[in-house]
Write a structure and sequence with these properties.
Blueprint (H helix, E strand, L loop, with lengths): L1 E2 L2 H14 L7 H13 L5 E3 L9 E9 L16 H13 L4 E6 L4 H14 L3 E5 L12 H4 L7 E4 L5 E4 L5 H14 L3 E10 H7 L1 E2 L1 H17 L4 H7 L5 E16 L2 E10 L7 E7 L1 E7 L2 E4 L4 E6 L16 E7 L8 H7 L13
Parallel strand pairs: 2-5, 3-4, 4-5
Antiparallel strand pairs: 1-2, 3-8, 5-9, 6-7, 6-8, 10-11, 10-16, 11-12, 12-13, 13-14, 15-16
């Protein structure tokens, strides 16, 4: 158990945004909110799951909704952490569950930041781990589902006054539809606290150490910039099979807000050793798959991130624009996603992709 420094907190958000594969929530909200907490002397405590008692309950807070900007809000999906406070209070009052720790639902600048914020306001520690190892567009993409464990009880709270408790669901498709529908009718997003599970159950399905990985990735980028070294090379060294797969200029970026998702494609025109070649990314909130010269090069569940070529800063799909100079990196997903059930939930066929790499 240790209290994180201001530097570690901001490195964590930076690293989580890189691992967020273009989605994972709005990092600017995390920077701003956590900055205010740190200024007031409130910093997060990071713990290993093993430091909790086996019977202690852990909750997973996040926001569900499209990351697409719209006329009502500048930028993409932002969060109001007080909604998670309401959910935690509901868990205690109506479900008689006292949450003793927070665990991120995914890795992303916004939603991992939200888990950190939620831990501070709830007075409980943040677990060094998460349920995805990256960001993903649907509730399907949780290692809780890979292990066959229900994500209920679930509490869904919106800024428009809707509050639901989901005690059970028919299947994960039904749960996804419920949460997504509530977000759509409530202004585009909803706060969720689910996978409220005892720590001995969480141990079976979480991905260990990912918060520290985010800190390490963010620190590597920052220190490389401070020393005048290559930030992107520093980042890829911290990732599982991290590698640069392309760089160039975003020539076309077309997207739409479709049923609670930002869906679109980004076309990158190659430069340098990639001159004369093209990369196309299919996006569903996050970068899902990549083709180079019209052949699949990276498929889900592996990670794809667009970085600013000069600084290595991650570019969210909310902020990506035509004309951006980008370096595209890839890395391998956690082994849980390479299992039969993991691929059913997060593999190519789940997203309607037919074909293999180089097809």
């Amino acid at each position: 158990m240790r209290r994180l420094s201001k530097e570690e907190v901001f490195d964590m958000i930076d690293g989580a945004t890189i691992l967020g594969t273009g989605g994972g929530g709005d990092p600017s909200s995390a920077y701003s909110t956590l900055g205010k907490f740190l200024e007031s002397g409130r910093s997060p405590i990071l713990v290993e799951l093993s430091e909790l008692r086996k019977e202690d309950y852990v909750g997973s807070p996040y926001f569900v909704g499209s990351i697409a900007p719209n006329k009502h809000k500048k930028g993409g999906l932002k969060f109001d952490y007080t909604l998670i406070e309401k959910a935690v209070l509901t868990a205690k009052q109506l479900l008689d569950v006292d949450v003793k720790g927070m665990i991120a639902s995914e890795i992303g600048g916004g939603n991992t930041g939200l888990a950190m914020i939620s831990s501070i306001v709830s007075g409980v520690p943040l677990i060094n781990g998460d349920f995805m190892g990256r960001a993903g567009p649907e509730l399907h993409q949780s290692t809780v589902n890979v292990c066959g464990i229900p994500m209920t009880p679930s509490i869904i709270v919106t800024g428009t006054g809707n509050e639901l408790i989901v005690r059970s669901y028919q299947n994960i498709d039904s749960y996804e539809s419920i949460a997504r529908y509530v977000s759509v009718i409530s202004g585009g997003h909803a706060a969720v606290l689910d996978s409220i599970l005892p720590s001995f159950t969480v141990k079976k399905c979480y991905i260990k150490g990912t918060i520290q990985t985010c800190i390490d990735v963010g620190r590597a980028r920052r220190e490389a910039l401070e020393k005048g070294k290559d930030p992107i090379g520093a980042i890829t060294k911290k990732l599982k099979n991290g590698r640069v797969i392309f760089y160039g200029t975003v020539e076309k970026y077309k997207w739409k807000d479709d049923a609670g998702f930002l869906k679109g494609t980004a076309l990158v025109k190659g430069e340098g050793k990639y001159k004369g070649r093209t990369l196309e990314s299919y996006i569903m909130n996050e970068h899902i798959s990549v083709k180079i010269d019209n052949k699949f090069h990276v498929l889900p569940p592996d990670l794809i991130s667009f970085l600013k070529s000069d600084t290595g800063e991650a570019i969210s799909n909310t902020d990506l624009s035509e004309g951006d100079h980008v370096t595209v990196i890839a890395s391998d997903a956690d082994k849980k996603w390479k299992t039969k059930r993991g691929l059913e939930l997060f593999g190519p066929e789940h997203f309607g992709i037919r074909g293999n790499k180089d097809d």
